[in-house]
Amino acid sequence: AIFRTLISIDVCSVHCTSMTMASGLTVKLGIHILHGKEEGSRILLMAGEEGDELYSVELMRHLLEQLEVHRLGGTLTAVPVMNPLAFEWGEPRSRHDGYSLRGCFPGNASGTATQRLATKIGELIQQSDAVIVLASGGPYCGECFTQLGTAEGEKAKISEQMANMLGLPIRETPVRTGTAVQYALDLGKPAISVHFGGGMYIEPEAEAAVKQALYAILYANNLSWPECTRTAAYLQTMEVPSNFGGLFHPEIGPELLGKEVPLGTPLGYVQNPTTLEVLEHYTAPYEHTSILGFRSMLSPIHPGTTLYVLGEELPQHQIN
User: Using CA atoms, how far apart are residues 99 and 180, in angstroms rounded to an integer?
Assistant: First the structure.
């Protein structure tokens, strides 16, 4: 039978039947379960791992609204908002305990609120055959890459196939432990995170291409996809933090997201808003610098704020 189901589950602990907050309200996760016409692989698709990744939640909505359920290659379990605690405030971390969900896996069933969320989501990961996490930049940022975790053997190969299907630049630098993707890989499940969009204008053609690639992944059965050639892969990437607080001025626009710029291209600068002094200026550090993510809007920043994710394109013989 072809059908879709919307359920909610309590975020449970070993000591109580649900996670009740100070307000007396119970925290629940909304979960969409969609069954294709045939038995097949169980794919877990999630968004909103951090509470300010609003674009990832919106992308999930578009995917579910336009999905042709009968074409699914098996069963799709979709979680539009992984972290309702942080989403409530539109912040990366939960105010309840200061934790980011991206770092709490496998969780703690009797721990803090975010750790309990990780435990419940971890159960969904354990029940799945493959995991895809939709991520995005926050309100001031944009991203454009697919992140691979640390894996070997067949699960690594399948994860790479999924990444290749998306056609986005592939970031091969290891993800930190405690993420949903790395937890899935540690359990032997193929997994990727798709970092796309954010609080900036995204060309409709680019969004449509990503959605079509995700549909192709979901419609295939038994985690079997055609081999695809990667156009760019990065074994090393650079995250550029600010050394000073102040007002950040971008000098590149969203049209360069996922694109390459030459060495020395002005990227942006930080200015003291009271003295008007330019404190730091940023330029492209590589002969072929790819813009995988960046802060794209005039915004106040603190010392240590990540402004850019940059990749140096590998020589052709190092690209599959």
Answer: 14
Task: Kindly report the pTM of this predicted structure.
Answer: 0.90
Burial class (CB in 10 A: 0-12, 13-18, 19+), 1: exposed
Q: Return the closest-CA partner of residue 207 out of 144, 120, 272.
A: 144
Percent of the chain at pLDDT above 70? 91
Q: Of 153, 154, 150, whose CA–CA distance to 185 is shortest?
A: 150
pLDDT, residue 13, reads: 37
- The candidate with the shortest Cα–Cα distance to 147, out of 129, 131, 124, is 131
194-230 burial, b if ≥16 CB within 10 A, otherwise e? Answer: bbbbbbbebeeebbeebbebbbebbbbeebebeebeb
Strand-strand pairing, 74-79 and 28-35: antiparallel
Structure-model confidence comparison of residues 220 and 232, the more confident one: 220
Q: What b/e sequence results for 236-265 when a residue is b if at least 16 CB atoms lie within 10 Å of its CB, and e otherwise?
A: ebeebebebbbbbebebebebbbebbeeeb
Q: What is the Cα–Cα distance from 314 to 67, expressed in whole angstroms? A: 36
For 104, residues 6+ apart whose C-beta sits below 8 A from its C-beta are: 114, 115, 117, 118, 178
Instruction: Give the separation between CA 105 and CA 291, rounded to whole angstroms.
Output: 29
Strand partners, 148: 192
Rounded to 5 degrees, what are φ and ψ at 25? -80, 150
Residues 156-165 have a mean pLDDT of: 91
Q: Are 107 and 12 in contact (CB under 8 A)?
A: no
CA atoms of 162 and 159, how far apart (whole Å):
5
pLDDT for 37 beyond 90: no
pLDDT tens digit sequence for 16-36: 335 777 777 788 888 999 998
